[in-house]
Write a structure and sequence with these properties.
The structure is a single chain. This protein has 9 helices and 17 strands. The chain is of the alpha/beta class and 352 residues long. It has a 9-stranded mixed sheet. Helix 8 crosses helix 9. The two termini are 19 Å apart.
């Protein structure tokens, strides 16, 4: 059966798109989806929904304030242009791939000024709209300038509803974030609080961490009706020796593996061998998971509710079954769950 983009479409009332996260974070609703059916719970119930000995795998990437507002100075008979830059990934000392709006007004050699002493020059412009930037600063000085002048890169569908607010600096970051480099949050992790993590520890639920620097490509629409033709953007990830050993030990002992977020699951599936065993890994992944994919790692997946026709909805349909997920999303819409990055969550049992 050839899967088409329309297979992953559904009607979502716009008022269900969450503008802010639940407070406290673990008060968000949680839809449990299993072969036994659907169960309405809350994220704070996780310790009772999981078993002692379960291993949860978290993505500890840290979001940088990757959106910068700048000006292209006048020159060559052209006037000054306001430019919004979204950093995508670091390519070298002082060099980043980025998206810019309005990209059509930029040419290689153009300079974008963000603040006195802080600028970038357009080095290359790709057909897909990406640009390569060379900054006037590098190393810690560049990192400090980005933190001073940048804002959190909220998803486009939230920014259409409201501007970035000061509270987003904390709201759009997990409490266990450690390694800077993401330009989008691993949103399933936004639901965890120190109190919930302590309760999971007390229940005997183990934790492991990996790092996947989530890119803005996670929000790019699928343009091909035949989903097999879609190509994912690459993202940098790492699984250390300790995490790989912890995961392998849990699998060998028959304990369940719970991926917290699609980003964690994508990196686990990238690294796992045919037998599901992990090895230390450092590099890029562009894995695209859709129905028909054979999973080797996680038994459960905790994730948010995703956009219609998105690669993320395709992934959860692959994990738990397309028809089951269509029914779960219909239930969530009827019960007024909150959707997308700041919305509620679901806990999915693997279909096979």
């Amino acid at each position: 059966m050839t899967l088409r983009l329309s297979d992953f479409d559904f009607d979502l009332p716009p008022e269900l798109v969450a503008r802010h996260p639940a407070s406290p974070r673990d008060s968000a609703r949680l839809l449990r989806v299993s072969a036994a059916g659907l169960e309405d719970r809350h994220v704070r119930d996780l310790p009772t929904l999981l078993r002692p000995g379960d291993l949860m795998v978290f993505n500890d990437t840290k979001v940088i304030p990757a959106q910068l507002a700048g000006l292209r100075p006048p020159g060559g008979g052209r006037g000054e242009v306001a430019v919004e830059v979204t950093l995508l990934r670091k390519t070298g000392a002082g060099h980043w791939q980025a998206l810019a709006k309005p990209g059509r007004r930029l040419r290689p050699g153009n300079r974008i000024e963000f603040a006195p002493g802080f600028s970038a020059t357009v080095r290359l412009k790709a057909e897909g709209g990406e640009i390569a930037l060379g900054f006037s600063l590098a190393g810690p000085a560049l990192a400090e300038a980005i933190h001073r002048h940048g804002v959190m890169p909220l998803p486009p569908y939230i920014r259409k509803l409201r501007p970035v607010e000061s509270r987003d600096a904390a709201d759009y970051q997990t409490v266990y974030a450690r390694h800077e480099g993401a330009v989008a949050a691993p949103t399933a992790g936004l639901h965890f609080t120190p109190e919930l993590l302590s309760a999971l520890d007390a229940r005997g639920i183990e934790r492991a961490h990996l790092t996947l620097h989530v890119g803005a490509g996670t929000f790019l629409p699928v343009k091909s009706e035949r989903i097999a033709e879609h190509r994912m953007h690459g993202e940098w990830g790492e699984i250390g020796e300790a995490a790989a050993a912890t995961i392998n030990r849990a699998k060998a002992e028959g304990r369940r593996l719970i991926a917290v977020g699609t980003t964690s699951l994508r990196l686990l599936e990238t690294v796992a061998g045919e037998d599901g065993r992990m090895r230390p890994f450092k590099g890029e992944t562009d894995i695209f998971i859709a129905p028909g994919y054979g999973f080797r790692t996680a038994d459960l997946l905790m994730t948010n509710f995703h956009l219609p026709k998105s690669t993320l909805f395709m992934l959860v349909a692959a994990f738990a079954g397309l028809e089951r997920m269509k029914a779960a999303y219909a239930h969530a819409i009827h019960q007024r769950y909150r959707f997308f990055s700041y919305g509620d969550a679901c806990l999915l049992e693997r279909a096979s």
